[in-house]
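Marked as duplicate of an earlier ticket. Keeping the data here for the record.
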Amino acid sequence: MKKRAAGRAAGMVVVSALLCAAVAAQPQPDVPQNTGSAPEPKPAAAELKPNTEDVLFEVQEPVGIARAIGMKDTLTPASDYGQILPYAAKVVGWKQDGTPVYRYALADSAGELVTNPVYTSVERKTCEDQLIWLLTQDTGEGTRVSCAAHDGSWVLGPFEGSITVNESCIFVQRTGSSVTTVYGSDGKIIGQVNGVVSSCTDGIIVSRESTEDTTIWHISDADTTESRATLAAVSVGAFSDGTATVQLAENEWGFIDEDGTVTEVEAVWLDESCDGYALAKDAEGKFGVLDSSGKTVAKFQYVNGVQCGDELPLYQLWETEEECIVLSAAMGQKLMLPKDLNAQQLAALPESYFAYTNAEGNSVVFDDLVSFDFEGKASFYRQGSERMIVALDDGYQVFDLEEAKVGKLRPYVYTAPQEQAAYEDSVFTITDPETGLQGIGDTKGRIVLEPEYDSISSADGSYFAAVSGCWSGIVDSNGDWIVRTMLTGMN
């Protein structure tokens, strides 16, 4: 916790997702109808063409010859890329809602093409603060996956199978393999674990193997992949502060430590462990809270309960439908709640803030020190490490979590990212509600790029994948196109 965290009891990071390449909705061309008895020739393939009166474009930085000659249908690692950036480079068809189906290409930050437009999707992931591109390619023989460092220095794949990028590791499982290979954020192999990985938290990898009769769970060290324990169970949760919850059989639950020692508890259900605590339910359907030793922290007397956040063991428990408490399990204390909460479920926000809707229909954000009222119902999004976006019907405001300050209302629509890593950027997509065009804002309240694009989104915080008219490519924070391609499509 930072300087304000000492006076608070809880926190939650709200996450959501970002598409790395922008999607522009282009209507399908009208198809001539056959009104005669004889069949007419099939219409020729239509092209998406820009309005030449509005679009004047000259290549500012020609594609480098050396890189162009080396372009391939898969990304190959190199030490001189600088940065690898994806963008929608080709239209290959249309969805039912009229939006294009793209193929994505990769370019470097100098605007030189690195690959042809061969990727079906490019997703942005983060591992140990390193940006990683997860690449999917559909071929006539199936789907192949690969992942690459943002600087293009290493590439894993392509191959048939799956890749999962965790906050601390990269997991690769090839089709038909019974083991998962574990890599670090530098693309170097750490080792292998048995089965399919279900979680990797608190330095512990949990993986599972299914047999005809049961499921075998493996607990391994994330730094070495060394096996620490193996057991048969229905499920094993993610580790937090050295323990996880485990379901041994129907209505049989407990806590398990890193060495596989299980402490059974008197409960018929346990939620995920959080710092050695878990929400629990007894055979009568009443909710309570237990710690990893099996000790009761909150008695089984509540009609409902939820964990308030992912970072701290905070639990909202309802005594009746009209009365509730919020319990800090670690502190053994109840938090002070607003008088007009009326037992509604709180939204847990970062840095120990919570939100609810008051009787007037307005959103209220509070902690134990301050309270903020917003006009109308708001949605809240973590954006960067110290700020949050308050999205309202008539615009958005930037909330500085550390300074407890709210910026002025900006009359644009905040476009929520669709990828967790996007929250690490200090920039985000905004939409002009009158024109529907998009631009880029930042967490200091400034407009980085005016809303003049059909679609635009942050690639890495400094460069942006954009579509404008029939042009698609990458622009920098000055609005200069470093690479731009005319999109062509088929009817």
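See parent ticket for discussion. DSSP finds one helix and 42 strands in the chain.
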